[in-house]
Amino acid sequence: MSPAELALPIVDAALADRLRSRMATVEEALFEHASSRAPYVTAAARHLLAAGGKRFRPLLVLLAAEAGPRPDADEVLTAACVVEITHVGSLYHDDVMDEADLRRGADSANSRYDNLVAILTGDFLFAKSSELTAQLGPDAVRIQAETFTRLVEGQILETVKPGPDEDPLQHYLDVVAGKTGSLIATSARYGALFSGAAPEVVEALTQYGELVGTAFQLSDDILDIASETEESGKTPGTDLREGVPTLPVLLARASQDPDDGRLLELLDQDLTDDALHAEALDLLRKHPALAEARDHVVARAQEAKKLLVVLPEGSVRAALESFADVVAVRSA
């Protein structure tokens, strides 16, 4: 494997080798943890793990752990498993809610089995992540509980339209922060915490994870509109076609430009029609909201990089800065 195959950009070869080696250990442990006395449950729980994924969250745990004196501590490896199992468990529930047929190029669990099995498998994985968290002590249990509350709250908010007195944009940002930012923040926090990093480093990396995680999700919103290819992992304009509110759409709705009449009219229509969908996509690509969305993502990435001043200059800080840059560039 080359450093480019890691989910984070790692230029330093020695650091990349260390992370790959530890990720291999984590990967093996993930499948061991996703096992049950019942073979059927084991097969269902391992289904999405086997489908792959970037494993960004556990990798961030391992990278953040390099900021402390004990990056190879057993607790770090356990924490890496906790965040990935939590994430994968949430995907089972996501697919039921979205009525998805595919996940990571494979049949979704609800498609392969059924909704009931998918929901219970997600619950099983959440239970497994709780068992592992208990091994990390009371602080980890509290952190995991707070993270899980935010994750589920974000999921719930996504299903509920903002009230008449609520700002739709802020509502959406709260959803993204809960569903995505919270667990990525905890990934960075766990790595720093269980490697013995100083409290100010733990706090800074927690905030870094929150910002970068949220920005990474929002950059997907931009790619959904701006990309001409399927570089975001799905057909361009998929969210637009499905009526999913995204950052560029919400910013366009909020612009109150009198010239936006046709775009707003289209956004209120059923865009499963190919011609209407193409017209809306074209208008959004030309709208200032797209540049505004990019500016928002770049600003979050820059904010995240500023937090890294607590770390000494070197390969670890450079890797974390590079990831923030990648988040910004992928939306440009």
TrEMBL record:
Keywords in alphabetical order: Magnesium, Metal-binding, Transferase
**EC annotation from Swiss-Prot or TrEMBL:** 2.5.1.-
Family label: Belongs to the FPP/GGPP synthase family.
Organism name: Nocardioides vastitatis
Gene Ontology molecular function = transferase activity
Signal peptide start and end residues: none
Q: Does the keyword Transcription regulation apply?
A: no
Please give the Pfam families that the UniProt record associates with this protein. polyprenyl_synt
Which CDD domains does the entry link to?
Trans_IPPS_HT
| Name by which UniProt lists this protein | Polyprenyl synthetase family protein
Listed cofactors: Mg(2+)
